[in-house]
Amino acid sequence: MAFTLPDFPAKTIATKTTTILQVPDNPKTLILEKCRTTRDLNQVHAHLIKTRLLHNPNVANPLLESAALLLPNPSINYALNIFRDLEKPDSAAYNAMIRGLTLKQSSNEAILFFRQMIEHLVKPDKFSFSSVLKACSRLKALMEGQQIHAQIFKCQWSCKHEELVNNALVYMYASCGEMVLARRVFDGMSERSTITWNSMFSGYVKSGFWEEVTRLFREMLDMEVQFDGVTLISVLTACRKLGDLELGQWIDDYVEVNGLMGNANLVTSLFDMYAKCGCVDAARRLFDRMPRKDVVAWSAMIAGYSQANRGKDALSLFHEMQKANVEPNEVTMVTVLSSCALLGALETGKWVHSYIKKKKWKLTVTLGTALVDFYAKCGCVDSAVEVFQEMPSTNVLSWTALIQGLASNGQGIRAMEYYSLMQQQNIAPNDVTFIGVLCACSHAGLVDQGWAFFTSMTRDFGFEPRIEHCGCMVDILGRAGRIEEAYNFIKSMTTKPNAVVWRTLLASCRFHKNVEIAEESLKQVVRLEPAHAGDYILLSNVYASVGRLEDALRVRSQMKEIGVKKSPGCSLIELDGVIHEFLAEDSLHPDLEDIYTAIDHIMKRIKLAGYVPNTAEGRLDAEEDGKEASISHHSEKLAIAFGLLKTTPGATIRISKNLRICTDCHNAAKLISTVFDRVLVIRDRNRFHHFVGGTCSCNDFW
DNA sequence: GTAGGGTTAG
User: Fold this and answer.
1) Angstrom distance (rounded) from CA A2 to CA A21
2) Using the CB atom, is residue A290 less than 7 Å from strand B?
3) Domain DYW spans what residues (predicted)?
4) Nucleotide lying nearest to A408, CA to C1' measure
5) CA A173 – C1' B9 distance (Å)?
6) A655, β-bridge pairs
C-alpha cells in the first residue's frame, strides 16, 4: 500500500520480514509491504513512535489499515490499540476500522464504530457509508441499514449521488430481501455499472425471485448494458430453477462465442444448469471439457447425476474424482450419500460415514440429515436414529428425514413419537413432514390418526393438502380395507387426482379383492397416463384373486393388443461395495452365465422346499411361457442375487428394486432366507424389508 | 463491490 509522508528521513527501515521501502523517484512515498505478522507491525509501530511520526495521520492511518485489513484475526486488537492511541481519529481512521471489522466477520462492532464516529462528529464519507452498509448486508440488519440510508439522504454533500454508496445500498437491501427498496435505489441512480446490476441480480437470486432475474436480464439486453460473467452466473441459477433451457442455451452460445469458457465458475454454472434442466449428458460433455476441475465442479456434476436418479453414474464419477486426487468436501459427501441412498449402496455410504469420522468433520445439519436419510433408505433404522441423536443441531429437514425413514421401515408408531418430540422442541413441521407423518399412519394402520393429522395439517398449520397428502390418505384407507371410503375421498378431492392416486387405490383393490372399484381405477389410470404394464397386471391379479381367471387372461391379452410396454424392471445388487445393475431381459451382463446356473440351482432348491408360486402372476407366467414352473420377474431377481451370494461366501447381498414387491416375491424371499440361512434385504421403492431365517422384520404390509 | 455445487416427499 502506498502513502505519502511529508518529512520522513530518507532511509529504509527493515525488520526480518517487513520493509518500509522508500520509492527512489519519490522520496515522499513509502511502501509498507509484507507486514504479515503482529511482530512486524510491532517493529514498525515502535519505530514510528520513536521518530514521532505516529502523530501524523498520513503515517498512522496506513499503519492502522495495515493492521485492520492485512493481518489475520488477532491483529484486530492490535489495530484497536493503534486506534485508541490516536489523538483525533479522522474519517480515514474510522473507515479502516469499519472495513477491518467487517472483513473479520465482526460486523456488529463495525456498526458500533460507525455510531461512535457520528457521535464524535466525524463526518462520514462515501467510504464510511459503503463499508458500514456492507456490515449491514452481512448481518441482514435492515433497520440499521435504513437509518444509514436516512443519513445519506440527509447529507448535504454529494454522497447520495456516489455510485459506490448507491451500490452498497442496493446490495444492502438486496441482502435483506427487500427487493422493492433495492429497486427504488437502483431506479434512482443516474449511472449504473455492471456491478450495480449484479447486486440486483444477487438479491433476486437470494430471494428466489427467478422470473425477476430473467426479466431483468432481458431488460439489460434491451438497454444494451454491458454484462459480465458474474451476471451470467446469476441468470444461469435462475434458468436452472425455472427450467428455462432456451435462455440457458443462449448463454452457452454466448460464452462459447465470446471465449469465456476459461471462466471455471461460469462453466460450472453452465453445466449445472444443463444437468438440472434434465440434460445430464450435455452437462457431462461440458464438464469433460474443463481443463481443471475443482471440488465444486466435481460436486456439481455428481449432484447432477444424483438428482437425475442416476446414482450409479454419480458414484462412479465420485471414484474418478478420488483418482484425480481432488479432496471431497462436505457438499461432495452430501451428494454422494444421497446417491448411496438412491441405490441402497450401504457399504459405500458407510465408508463415507467413517471418512467423515476419520477427518473429524463437524456433523452439520445438512451432513447429518444426509446420513440419517441414507441409513433410513438403506433400512438401517437404528443407525439413522443414532446419527440423528448425535447431531448437535437439527432442523425441520432432519426431523422429516427421520420420521419418513422410520415410517417407511415399518416403524410408524416410533415415527409418530418423533413427531410429537419435534413439536415439544418447537420445530415447526412443513408440508413434507406431513407426508412422512401420514405415511407412518398408513404403515401402522392408524386410520383415525391419519384423518386427525390430515385435518390438523390445514387447520393448525395452514398447509393445503397437496396431491401427495391425498395419495397418503387413499393409501391409509385402502390398506385398511376401506376401499369405498377411499374411492369417495378421491371423488371429493379439490385437487385433481393423478395416476399415482388411482394406482394406489388399484393396488388396495388387489389386496382386498374389490373388482368393481379396481375396474374403475384402471380406467382412470389409463386415462391419465399412457399405458403402464403394472396397472393392467394389478387388475388382472384382482380378477385372478377372486377366481375370475378368464377375465384375468383377457386383461393380459388386451395388454398385448394395445401394445402396453413393460418398462424394463431394474434391480440393483450391492456386492462388497460394488453396485451391479440388472435390467430385465439383460442378456449382456457379464455374470449372466453364472447367474443362470445359479437360478437353476435356486429353482431346484425352491422346488425341493415345496415352494409353489401361488399368485396369479406366477400361474399366468407359467401358462404364457408354456413352461411348467417359470419364475416371475421378481423371483428371478432374487435368484440372481442368491446366485451371487452362493458364489461369494460370506458376502452380504442387498437387492434394491424400483418395483413394488408382489406377494410372490415376498414368499420367495422368506423361503430363500430360510434355505440359505442368510439375512436378506429387499427394497420396495423406499422401503426395506429384512428377512432373517424366513421371517420379515417389517410386518406392517404383509 | 457483485458470482458456481448440497439435505426432507412422490
Assistant:
1) 10
2) no
3) 610-702
4) B9
5) 34
6) A573, A682
Handedness of CA A542, A440, A307, A641 (dihedral sign): negative
Angstrom distance (rounded) from CA A195 to CA A201: 10
Nucleic strand B near CB of residue A603 (< 7 Å):
no
Of all residues in chain A, what percent carry a pLDDT higher than 90?
A: 44
With beta carbons less than 8 A apart as the criterion, state whether A681 and A688 touch: yes
Distances (CA, A) of A95 to A103, A127, A356: 12, 7, 42
pLDDT tier, A28 (very low <50, low <70, confident <90, very high otherwise): very low
Quickly list DSSP for A65-110: HIIIIIS-TTHHHHHHHHHHH-SS--HHHHHHHHHHHHHTT-HHHH
Pull the grid cell for residue A446: 392408524
List the domains of chain A with CATH numbers: 465-562 (1.25.40.10), 570-696 (no CATH)
Give the nucleotide with minimal C1' distance to the Cα of A269.
B4
Q: Is the CB of A439 under 7 A from strand B?
A: yes
**Which nucleotide is nearest to A468 if distance is taken from CA to C1'?**
B10
pLDDT in tens, A480-522: 889 999 999 999 888 888 888 888 888 888 878 888 888 888 8
Question: CB-based contacts of A285: which residues, under 8 Å, 6+ apart?
Answer: none
Q: What is the pLDDT of residues A362-408, one digit of tens each?
A: 999 999 999 999 999 888 889 999 999 999 999 999 999 999 999 98
Nucleotide of closest approach to A263 (CA, C1'): B4
A334 CB-to-strand B distance under 7 Å? yes
> Which element (helix H / strand E) includes A32?
strand A29-33
Cα(A202)–Cα(A167) distance, integer angstroms: 12
Cβ of A408 less than 7 A from strand B: yes
